[in-house]
Amino acid sequence: MSNKQHSTTINLPRGNLDLTYQLNDTSGSKATYQLEELLSFAQRINPKRAFLFVSKVLGRHIPVAPSTMRSAFTDLANLVPNDLPEPILVIGMAETAVGLSAGVHQALQTRYPNALLLNSTRHAQHSGNNDKSSDSLLTTFSEDHSHASQHLIYQSSDKVTQEQLLASKTLIMVDDEASTGNTCVNVVTALRNAGLAQLEQVHLTTLVDWSLNQNQGTADADDTISTRLPNIDFHRHHLLSGAWQWTDAPDPEPIIMPSVDTTEAGSQPLGNTGNWGRFPTLDSTDGFDNYLEKFQTAFTRFSEQAQFDKKQLPERILVLGSNEFVWLPFLLAEWLEQTASLNSDNQTVKFSALTRSPIALGGAITTMLSFSDNYGLGMTNFAYNVEPSDWDLIVLCVETASDSVDDMWQGLDNVLVVSPTL
Length: 422
What we know:
The protein is α/β, with parallel strands linked by helices. It has helices at residues 35-38, 66-77, 98-108, 159-166, 182-193, 218-228, 288-306, 327-343, 407-410, and strands at 6-12, 15-23, 39-43, 51-55, 88-92, 116-119, 137-142, 150-154, 170-178, 201-209, 233-248, 316-322, 348-354, 368-372, 380-384, 393-397, 415-418.
């Protein structure tokens, strides 16, 4: 790790964000990431925290090339050490880190082929079989600073998988950023109380770690978490680390946050997209082949209507995941990027996602689209930094029926909705 400290101040409408950070010599990884390569900044519409770290490699609020995302996933996974005690559980935080966790998990499986992936969710689930016990929660926890604080974690209906889950010795918790370590403590405590009593190690694995207090070193910060997690060997892995300090502007305008904190199922049923991590899984790509087939079928129909060449992809393609449903859409975007590169040097494929996260215009957020969610929850969803006219084709990927998508999207002639119920 580089010891050289850098500092900068980010001016936002509700105050100033002072950053102190250091570039990490990511041994085991191929790259050292600069701050401006990883992050930009924006204002949350959230009274709990007035600012937002906006990732440039996550494909959530800023469209990004799938190959850039894949490199970040792999570089982060490469920081996780060898010879960890097994069984290993990789757990990702909804909604922002669901795709990140799957990417890290997939990269880790070259070394740990039996590692399980499990993501938290804010969508109540049903497994689809007749055994109602399989639908039961494993546990819940709270992410205190979030716009939607409550998370659900589900168990497996498969006996062998469930036994492996409960026998986990190493937990690799994946998130886009860490600030206080509180979410990590909440997750580990909830899992131990739910039966994961054999946990020995916890590896907090984030793109950026802001939990290093300016008056403390890494060891002091880790000691604080270790004290709260007795009998756990605690480690951190990240592409960049530092500390932040926020100063409110004088007399900031009051904030009214939209109502987005729900874990209800919604009135729109979820289609069958396989198991990519809402239930414990070894194979996060389960369901992708079927979803790719749905895209190919839909694109054939769409290209006839839009007078596209069915064999030649449009030049500028944006793939949009929706809320937590981002991993299979990312794999589709990656497939399109690789296919496009074989055909032309001029084609562009990028990935982003719809989100329930309310963010103000300004800073990293140059445009905002707002619309009704496709889950039937009656809440507003958003797409940031997406100007529809900039793209020849927008592939909007949902896990609900095609007609669940807001009329705004259905009214655009360059939007192709891909649904598992096509």
